[in-house]
């Protein structure tokens, strides 16, 4: 029996190089290998907790879908869908909510961080907290449990949410007997953490990202902004501590990497290193960028792919939802 790997990406901003290397690339490789059932989705309901501008929301949701497809996700190999196209997730969300103590939600980190901030600013503790944000981990548990997921690849900040999904599954199983599989998280630690423009981890929250699909001129401009030290061009440089080299490594072929390593050691100017970095990233991204632009210009294609995916997702999850509803006492 193949295990199920499931993960979602929330459409809250433009996908950047760090998202690609840290999350999307390993997920694409996994889907190709056929060793697992893979389910990847656009977590649009989750984004609604903070995005209240319809046009922007729509554009970002399509953006995530277009990114996966442009980078080569084969929707015949992975189940690929939009969360909001699978209403069963929402039905399960409510049922799970009735098995989740409020105290568990009080301890969830995103909510707790807001409460702490409110305390510091002398605000009411729940100032700016909507119920979507508060119950966010329950919806995430529904995403995960409805597909009997074994493995959930996530960033470090999402580990607690997967643990909460386990807790909720256990509460349910405890009352009604073995029903949900207990998921485990997989942190993408073996993959590199990409440095951003300022050398810190590339992240939306640090505002130091290089978006994946920017046009070439903008890409070159952003690369020029990457911080370097002030060594003169001819000075030997340590590739392993260079942010430019760390990025180069992820996009170049092994022989290009080897060659570049030697150029660092014998002395390469930062200007030159930046040009080379631009070349490899641009070469890699050229085709996906075209595909991405094409998909964004005609989102009907995306709708078709996503609806087909939702159909498959529903075939997989409806039997479990029925079982759950029967167990709690609904006549269906
Ligand atoms: N909360 C995740 C994030 O912010 C996105 C997400 C929603 C998710 N549902 C999920 C990830 C289920 C994994 C599994 O990154």
Automatic annotation (TrEMBL):
It comes from the Bacteria. It is found in: Cytoplasm. It is an enzyme of class 6 (ligase). The keyword Cytoplasm applies. InterPro entries: aa-tRNA-synth_I_CS, aa-tRNA-synth_Ic, Rossmann-like_a/b/a_fold, Trp-tRNA-ligase, Trp-tRNA-ligase_bac-type, Trp-tRNA_synthetase. Homodimer. Belongs to the class-I aminoacyl-tRNA synthetase family. This is Tryptophan--tRNA ligase. It comes from Bacillus salitolerans.
């Amino acid at each position: 029996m193949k295990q199920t790997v499931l993960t979602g990406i929330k459409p809250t901003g433009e996908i950047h190089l760090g998202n690609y290397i840290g999350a999307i690339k390993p997920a694409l490789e996994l889907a190709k290998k056929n060793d697992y059932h893979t389910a990847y989705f656009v977590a649009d309901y989750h984004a609604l907790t903070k995005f209240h501008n319809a046009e922007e929301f729509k554009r970002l949701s399509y953006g995530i879908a277009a990114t996966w497809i442009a980078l080569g996700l084969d929707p015949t190999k992975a189940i690929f869908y939009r969360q909001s196209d699978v209403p069963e997730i929402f039905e399960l969300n409510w049922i799970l909510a009735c098995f989740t103590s409020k105290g568990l939600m009080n301890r969830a980190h995103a909510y707790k961080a807001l409460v702490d901030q409110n305390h510091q600013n002398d605000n009411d503790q729940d100032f700016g907290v909507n119920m979507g944000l508060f119950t966010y981990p329950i919806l995430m548990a529904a995403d995960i449990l409805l597909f009997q997921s074994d493995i959930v690849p996530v960033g470090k900040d999402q580990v607690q949410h997967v643990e909460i999904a386990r807790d909720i599954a256990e509460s349910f199983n405890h009352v009604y007997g073995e029903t949900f599989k207990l998921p485990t998280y997989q942190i993408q630690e073996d993959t590199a953490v990409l440095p951003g423009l300022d050398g810190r981890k590339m992240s939306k929250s640090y505002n130091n990202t290089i978006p994946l699909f920017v046009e070439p001129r903008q890409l070159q401009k952003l690369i020029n902004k990457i911080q370097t030290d002030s060594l003169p061009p001819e000075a030997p440089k340590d590739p392993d501590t260079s942010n430019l080299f760390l990025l180069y490594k992820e996009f170049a072929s092994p022989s290009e990497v080897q060659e570049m390593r030697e150029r660092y050691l014998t002395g390469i100017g930062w200007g030159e290193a930046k040009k080379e970095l631009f070349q490899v990233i641009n070469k890699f991204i050229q085709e996906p960028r075209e595909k991405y632009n094409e998909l964004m210009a005609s989102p009907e294609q995306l709708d078709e792919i996503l609806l087909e995916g939702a159909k498959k997702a529903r075939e997989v999850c409806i039997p479990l939802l029925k079982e759950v509803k029967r167990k709690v006492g609904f006549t269906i």
